[in-house]
Amino acid sequence: MKKVLIILLPIVFLFILWQSIIVIFDLPHYIMPKPKDVFFQLINQHSLLWEHTQTTLLEIIIGIILGCIFGLGSAFTLLYFKKIEKYLLPLLVISQAIPVFAIAPLLVLWFGYGMASKIVMTVIIIYFPITTACYDGLKNTPKQWLQLAHTYKLSALQTLLKVRFRASLPSLASGLKIAVCIAPIGAVIGEWVGSSKGLGYLMLHANARMQIDLMFSALFILIVMTLSIYFLTDYLTKKFIPWASHLH
User: Fold this and answer.
1) What is the pTM of this model?
2) Can you give the residue ranges of the ABC transmembrane type-1 domain (predicted)?
3) What gap in Å lies between CA 104 and CA 192, rounded to an integer?
């Protein structure tokens, strides 16, 4: 019951604050819609919203999966191929130094207006936190674990998979939780630049037609979706990495 109240109270406070701001400053509908108008749009336009939600959710999920694959591969490469490290690390930094807004039009041009360009943007955004988190975890494997692996004469591959990778999971989990929070940014930016489906496209289209309540409805769904992915990730990491709190 306490956990439910902890979740509900901030939401109730937010809606009260939202309605209060509208009343106090006498904001017109086209500046900020009332919470009840947004709620009505969620009900009345549920089919339209669900159609666009599926597209964005699929882009995010595929982007997270591919980002994890490339991130883990890069972390393993950095660990075992020291000569490549001095070339790959600058690329990691560059991937974050260039704003995704700046390269979004190019990605749409190269990969088209479909889902591919949005997935690529999502991968680019989460690639850095996944790679660095996993790499730090691999490097900081407790020496006792490595000594035990040496005692049992494990091969390099066995040491990587059974010792180093397990030791890196708590660090990787932290990076993954950051990644799932920022992954929707890539998908939505891609939909803003060029698309015909998705919550980002719907928000842009609704804003152009002054349907601000519909735009807020799409934004609300995006927030709920991101929170759901985050809490699911947090639950799974706690369930499948129980040794995280005892690593050090």
Assistant:
1) 0.87
2) 53-233
3) 9
